[in-house]
Amino acid sequence: xxxxxxxxxxxxxxxxxxxxxxxxxxxxxxxxxxxxxxxxxxxxxxxxxxxxxxxxxxxxxxxxxxxxxxxxxxxxxxxxxxxxxxxxxxxxxxxxxxxxxxxxxxxxxxxxxxxxxxxxxxxxxxxxxxxxxxxxxxxxxxxxxxxxxxxxxxxxxxxxxxxxxxxxxxxxxxxxxxxxxxxxxxxxxxxxxxxxxxxxxxxxxxxxxxxxxxxxxxxxxxxxxxxxxxxxxxxxxxxxxxxxxxxxxxxxxxxxxxxxxxxxxxxxxxxxxxxxxxxxxxxxxxxxxxxxxxxxxxxxxxxxxxxxxxxxxxxxxxxxxxxxxxxxxxxxx
Length: 333
What we know:
Elements: E1 2-5, H1 10-21, E2 26-30, H2 36-46, H3 50-54, E3 57-61, H4 67-73, E4 79-82, H5 94-114, E5 119-123, H6 151-168, E6 173-178, E7 180-182, H7 192-199, E8 204-205, E9 209-214, H8 215-227, E10 233-237, E11 240-243, H9 244-254, E12 262-263, H10 266-283, H11 291-296, H12 306-312, H13 319-332
Parallel strand pairs: 1-2, 1-4, 2-3, 4-5, 5-6, 6-10, 7-9, 8-12
Antiparallel strand pairs: 9-11
Helix pairs in contact: 1-2, 1-8, 5-6, 7-9
């Protein structure tokens, strides 16, 4: 039996689909029954039998911050993919991020040890990887620093430490650190917002850039790592390092709109994060741009995925094809 936490999210739902194609026995956690509709929608992008596939999954209502609900989920489980996490870059959400990302991961690790799970795959993020040195590429060996790190990155780093703690206690485990994951189905959050933003024909784009990877590459890497003898290792998953300008110029024509041409200045960003801070404190609104996020745009990190390529002879798919697929599904939504 395989357990997938965060099964109703972007990575979790695609992972479930691929594991079903391998005829695996699956159990997945959910917190709201309505969220299972997200999985049905994702399955529908790839299959005409989405409903019948969904019925093959054993769904368990469980919260990773609640040990009692998780106990039932872990019954007879041999392998665990821990995809569940809270994603927010708003400093006000730090306590919730700690509870979900750090304490929740500690619960998963402890239950894996208690139930003698054969292997754990933890989905972290490039936000939890150290900064580059002298402008070089970032890899798995870069030293961690708290400087200009988002609250999300801080908690994902601490969550990784819980996984390493578990590995020291005898739990076979691997960690993946994906870049921005491009995949269909969640257009109002995460990478989906790039497609939504581009579809409006916006004229401006933010400076900087980051590492991008397709959802298929993330899922394939996770499954291959779990089926390999590799353990006690972490792997950056980045196919291409792109500027946000380049990404939007790839997306916009596929959506039938004009690409943005005006770069938002760093001065404008400095003004905006201060106004955003004031707006949040006076009106209680969610932050859209924190100080650390704005500062992070000044320096563009370039990520290396050479380790995953060598470890399991992994090959990334054509990212342009993945972007085209997302654009097609966005227009069909």
